[in-house]
Design brief:
The chain has 148 residues and is mostly helical. The chain has a single domain (5-143), classed as Arc Repressor Mutant, subunit A, CATH 1.10.10.10. The chain is 59% helix and 5% strand. The chain is built from 6 helices and 2 strands. The chain has helices at 5-20, 28-35, 39-51, 76-84, 101-125, 128-143, and strands at 55-58, 64-67. A two-stranded antiparallel sheet has the order 1-2. Strand 1 (55-58) and strand 2 (64-67) form a beta hairpin. The chain is elongated and about 65 Å long. It starts with a helix and ends in a 5-residue tail after the last helix. The model has no long low-confidence stretch (mean pLDDT 92).
Length: 148
């Protein structure tokens, strides 16, 4: 599995959207600016998220984006799948009866399969709400710090 920049930026942008949509839809340029993400790249990411039904858009001068469902009902698994497709580690490719079949099968059964199972469970339980809350806690903890 590779946790792509596309997924990282997509999740960051959705955290931002979850934190700012209380006042209505959020414009893409605001999300891009707050997160230092290229507007052009963010447009591609949001197109994929819109196609997956994760976000919706409103056109017009007061338009922008909003989440299609509450952050508590949106999992990291849904987001990563929408942006990158399958997130599992690849299976071991060894012809049956070929050299190295036994070690390859052991690797698959004892390492790759359990990692994929754990990752799937973790990503399906981690919600956008939890990520947004963590972001807010971090912001609040460091907002009033002064450096000399």
């Amino acid at each position: 599995m590779v946790f792509s920049k596309r997924s990282r930026y997509g999740i960051r942008a959705l955290i931002d959207l979850a934190q700012h949509e209380a006042n209505g839809s959020v414009q893409l340029n605001e999300i891009a600016e707050r997160n230092s993400i290229s507007m052009k790249y963010l447009e591609q990411i949001f197109a994929a998220l819109r196609k997956a039904g994760i976000i919706r858009s409103v056109k017009g001068p007061q338009g922008g984006y909003y989440l299609a469902k509450p952050p508590a009902n949106l999992t990291a698994a849904e987001i990563v799948t929408a942006l990158d497709g399958v997130y599992f580690l690849d299976k071991e490719e060894v012809p049956a009866g070929g050299k190295g079949e036994a070690p390859a099968r052991a690797l698959q059964m004892k390492l790759i399969d359990p990692m994929n199972e754990w990752l799937d469970g973790f990503l399906h339980t981690l919600t956008l709400k939890e990520l947004a809350e963590c972001s807010e806690e971090y912001r609040n903890a460091f907002q009033n710090m002064y450096y000399i």
